[in-house]
Amino acid sequence: MDDTAYRQFFEQPTQTYHRRYEALRAIFFEQRSQKEVAQTFGFTYDSMRQLVRQFRQQCDNQDNSQTSQESPFFERLMSDAR
User: Fold this and answer.
1) Does residue 71 form part of some domain?
2) What is the torsional sign of CA 17, 23, 50, 76?
3) Which of 39, 40, 66, 71 holds its CA 20 to 30 A away from the CA of 11?
4) How many domains does the chain divide into?
5) Cα–Cα dist 57/76, whole Å
6) How many CA atoms lie within 13 A of 75 on its CB side?
7) 76 close to 70: Cβ distance less than 8 angstroms
């Protein structure tokens, strides 16, 4: 079975939040450099640094808060609210 089209969904995301998610995942999970990831996902190096900073700040704020916050990457569907 040829999974090329399915792999491209993850390797070349087109939606903004999906691109951000995959880029941050590549940096933190795959431990790739910010410069490489920025180029791969179509970000400037400076905007990638900003995304990383914002993500770290959000995670730090979640750790210090007593309530759980929603993910910045995934919308909660109305059907999930039940």
Assistant:
1) no
2) positive
3) 71
4) 1
5) 22
6) 5
7) yes
pLDDT of residue 60: 87
Residue 10 forms part of a structural domain: yes
Question: What's the pTM?
Answer: 0.74
pLDDT in tens, 20-47: 999 999 999 999 999 999 999 999 999 9
Residue 37 lies in a domain: yes
Helices (H), the chain: 4-11, 16-28, 34-41, 45-64
In one letter, which amino acid is 22? E
Domain that residue 43 falls in? 4-63
Q: Which amino acid would we find at residue 17? A: Y
Looking at the domain assignment, is residue 34 inside a domain? Answer: yes
Distance CA(82)–CA(78), nearest Å, equals 8
